[in-house]
Design a protein that fits this description.
Elements (H helix, E strand, L loop, with lengths): L2 E4 L5 E6 L2 E6 H6 L26 E8 L2 E7 L3 E6 H6 L30 E3 H6 L1 H14 L1 E5 L8 H6 L4 E2 L7 E7 L4 H4 L18 E9 L6 E5 H11 L1 H9 L2 E5 L7 E5 L2 E3 L5 E4 L17 H16 L4 E4 L6 E5 L3 E5 L6 E10 L1 H19 L1
Parallel strand pairs: 7-8
Antiparallel strand pairs: 1-2, 2-3, 4-5, 5-6, 8-18, 9-20, 10-20, 11-18, 11-20, 12-17, 12-19, 13-14, 15-16
Helix pairs in contact: 4-10, 7-8, 7-9, 8-9
Bound molecules: fe (ii) ion.
The site of fe (ii) ion has 3 residues, from loops.
Length: 380
């Protein structure tokens, strides 16, 4: 089913199946060889540096044998076997994504219509059943947030949520922080205002990538939590006016926090962050901590503010928000590089006590990938 054809100079090879074709370079194949001299059989790590591969590398022979491709490299005279299925899975010979702000296919943007299907799991189920944990973490990857119900109502229970997938990230606010609100009608303005949806701590570099908020007490009316998909906001901004999207992604904002003695956190990052190939990778939005903007060219400053204003308005639109109430023992987790969160205003008296902490998204995605690999192995 596989066929392979070398170019006349041996610097490229084309692999064909009945319904696909992909070209590979000799240097790429040699660098990705998995023989015992190139990669450790134990941990899979590469044992050679690029300088140990000749610059003039070429292929002198390529033989397909069933599911395996054997390539001989010159001037080393070295033969290496490749899984053809692995090669086609890792093919890079494709059209490049042209659209600035494209998203990985694993992600799905959303608005208030997701309210009917908030990603949710029971804490005890997620703790005891790897499939339920995998499904919940998979939804967090896809949608950028998830809720847990049925957790213990005890101090620092949020650490048990983090234990499901990774590790706490400690900051100057501690391993965790308290969010206590005494709702008193005579002093409503100071304690119970709603907050605009935001991402946390954009003044850090790197910013925390996961935030967990855990409810321990909730007797006040109102005060629902809400989340907004920052990637959906960026897509809408781009659809309304590509120049707004461009100006916010091509120039850095500045953020700062100096509210505690001995702390002066600053960062210089865009509100909408793209990878070099245009992939939308992060949104930062927090009006409370934007510093003086000094990296936007003079001729673009008014355009920048128009774009920033519109981004803020889109974030505030009711059709963008998903809201939910957190009862004691319930928590939610957001991907802080994507999903904005906020608390709505209170309408009565009472108390509300939440605990929050940060954790790392790479650890969450690692746990998810390991659970998926284990499920595939178990099914095989
Ligand atoms: Fe926050």
């Amino acid at each position: 089913m596989y066929a392979a054809e070398l170019s006349s100079d041996g610097r490229q090879i084309e692999i064909r199946t009945p319904d696909a074709r992909a070209r590979f370079h000799a240097i790429w194949l040699r660098d990705n060889a998995s023989d015992a001299e190139t990669r450790s059989a134990g941990n899979g790590q590469r044992l050679i540096t690029l300088d140990q591969i000749p610059e003039a590398i070429a292929m002198s022979a390529a033989v397909v044998d069933g599911e395996t491709l054997q390539v001989t490299f010159q001037p080393e005279g070295k033969s290496v076997d490749y899984s053809l299925a692995w090669l086609m899975e890792h093919a890079y010979d494709r059209e490049t994504q042209a659209e600035r702000g494209w998203l990985r296919s694993e992600l799905e943007t959303w608005d208030s219509r997701l309210m009917a299907a908030v990603p949710e799991a029971d804490f005890e189920d997620a703790k005891s059943d790897p499939q339920i944990l995998q499904d919940w973490l998979g939804k967090i990857e896809r949608f950028g947030f998830g809720k847990l119900t049925g957790g213990p109502v005890e101090d620092q229970a949020l650490m048990q949520v983090v234990d499901l997938f990774g590790y706490v990230r400690e900051t100057n606010y501690g391993r965790h922080f308290e969010v206590r609100t005494e709702v008193n009608p005579t002093n409503l303005a100071y304690t119970a205002l709603g907050l605009q949806a935001h991402t946390d701590n954009p003044y850090r570099d790197p910013a925390p990538t996961i935030q967990v908020l855990y409810c321990l007490e909730s007797s006040a009316a109102g005060g629902e939590n809400m989340v907004v998909d920052g990637f959906k906001v960026a897509q809408r901004l781009r659809a309304e006016n590509p120049d707004w999207f461009t100006v916010l992604s091509e120039h850095c904002a500045r953020f700062e926090y100096a509210g505690d003695a001995g702390v002066r956190l600053t960062s210089r990052r865009p509100l909408i962050e793209l990878a070099p190939d245009g992939e939308l990778i992060a949104v930062r939005f927090n009006s409370r901590s934007v510093a003086a903007l000094t990296d936007v060219p003079f001729d673009k400053m008014e355009l920048y503010y128009a774009a920033y204003r519109r981004m803020s308005q889109i974030i505030d639109e009711p059709e963008m928000e998903v809201s939910f109430r957190l009862n004691p023992g319930e928590s939610f987790l957001v991907d802080n590089t994507r999903v904005l969160h906020a608390r709505k205003a209170y309408s009565g008296t009472g108390t509300r006590w939440l605990q929050g902490c940060y954790a790392d998204k790479d650890g969450l995605l690692s746990t998810l990938a390991a659970l998926r690999a284990r499920a595939v192995e178990a099914a095989a």
